[in-house]
Amino acid sequence: MQSIRAVFKGPTFTGTASSLLIAVLILISLSMRISAHEVWLEPAEFAPSVGKTVPVSIKVGQNLEGESLVFLRRDFPRIVKHAGGRNISVTSIDGNIPALSVLIRDRGPNIVSLASRVYELDFETKEKLAEYLDLEGYTKLAESTRTSLQNPIEMSEEYERNAKTVLFGDGKRQGRDQRSGLELEFVFEDDFSRFVMGNKVRARLLKSGRPLPNIPVKAIATGRQPAAAFLVTDAAGRVEIPLDSKGQWLINAVYFSRWPSGATGEIKSIWSSYTFDVE
Asked: Bridge-partner residues for 164, per DSSP?
């Protein structure tokens, strides 16, 4: 994608073999980031037995199709598991793919949350910016971008990513969701026992703990046609998701806290995703 370039300030590497390997992995990981913003946590299984260590990938792409990111602590400084009334930091090693290994100690919901560092992108054509907005459900803003701007444009974006997933120890699907302390996050209001095909479940989108109204939300499921359903949060920051397909689901939203008025300026955004499975 020649019209979108990432601005990356990496560490200074020595000539050791390990440093060179990590440098290569960073470049590979960076190339994946340029093509898509959606990031989600994808466990190898959603209902592991207690005592099992579950590989969890950090994926980047669109509509649950993407690549696994290399784990780099500088990119993902905060990863926490919330289970049994405890908050436990999840650690990993630079270069790991899958990125995480999560030990399941508790029956019921084990919620894993992740926060990234801040990244930067530059947009040089209005077409790429409009395409990006269309993919996230901001159709009116995309239309305005196409009609009001002239090429070339000079826009930079600062963005950060938040992601959650839930695993059910011993397959026990009873229990409630909880806030993870992410700056932008989804929190389900319904008990996890309702995550069965044919039901509807409610989730709220929170920014610093406060509900966000009128934000587009994508609900995506593997095997669903079309893959994505577009929803909008109501005045209470809530969406109701019709679980019309079994298997893995992803809900995703982006919040723009800064948007330029012309063809030059800075965009600031925060992304949030939540993966879960439906029986």
From this structure: 113, 274
